[in-house]
Amino acid sequence: METTLRMMDRLNNYVGDGRSAPLVKLGDASMASPFTAKHASVAPVKDIIRQGRSTLVTSLQMFKILGLNSLATSYVLSVMYLDGVKLGDVHATINGVLTAALFLSISQSRQLQTLSAERPHPSVFSLYLFLSLLGQFSVHLIFLIYSVKEAEKHMLEECIEPDASFHPNLVNTVSYIVSMMFQVATFAVNYMGHPFNQSIRENKPFFYALIAGAGFITVIVSDLFRNLNDSLKLVPLPQGLRDKLLLWGLLYVHHLLLVGAVAQVGFSR
Questions:
Q1: What digits encode the pLDDT tens for the residues 2-45?
Q2: What residue ranges carry the coiled-coil annotation (predicted)?
Q3: Cα 64 to Cα 58: distance, rounded to the nearest angstrom
């Protein structure tokens, strides 16, 4: 017995000369094992499933948000640009900073400690994802077109030149406000919390970033600080148009939530 223990001790402490195959010590994982666990239960397997589902869900929501932002940006920079609608350098900078802050805060989400019986969608290339993208983009497109058309009614005497450089006007202001609404609503609607990750309220950085974005939009639409809107190159909104934008914004978020819920129920696994 003592001789056997000495031999095992020598094998465990053997380093080798680098030319022979390394010896596997007791407790080490083999080359075919994806992880090492020194537990007598299957708890590590449960942890890996939870973390894998959390990673998959986070990847899916990132692809959805990026896809929607890309569709909206391509429409603004192509079709609306030909109609003379433009965004200034200040507008693009604020949009970029807001998007970066939301992406950074959304990555702070933690997986839940309980393993759900529900399974997430296994791939980005699923019918649910494409229908959700098309449905949400259709709602945003309708909201954007109607808002710009409503703004054009209040500036009939001003001619919009497609090839002219950017200058503040009512159409550009409305299109920028709608784009900001779309960014914040996209992150809020497509965030996937329970039963895999923390909810929006539990993810404090993301929750506060959404509140800050919604508060900023409310301030610029209501024109509470005229100096701030002037620095952002935003013109004052007529009272009727301002009320319509706030009301349409609430209906817009409601329809986005409805589209996401219908797609999720219809194609849940």
A1: 566 666 666 555 545 545 555 555 555 555 555 566 666 677 77
A2: none
A3: 10
pLDDT at residue number 39:
65
First to last CA, the chain: 57
Q: Is 111 helix (H, G, I), strand (E, B) or coil?
A: strand
Give me the sign of the Cα torsion angle 233, 235, 241, 244.
Answer: positive
Residue 257, both tokens? 């939530």
Contact assessment for residue 196 and residue 116, using Cβ atoms and an 8 Å cutoff: yes
Secondary element (H or E) of residue 93: helix 89-106
Confidence (pTM): 0.76
**Residue indicated by tokens 């990673």:** 55
pLDDT at 64 over 80: yes
User: What was the pLDDT predicted at 266?
Assistant: 44
CB 228, CB 220: distance < 8 Å: yes
Amino acid at site 107 = S
Asked if 132 contacts 255 with a C-beta cutoff of 8 angstroms, the reply is no
User: What average pLDDT does this structure show over 138-153?
Assistant: 85
Handedness of CA 50, 51, 55, 61 (dihedral sign): positive
Beta carbons of 267 and 131 less than 8 angstroms apart: yes
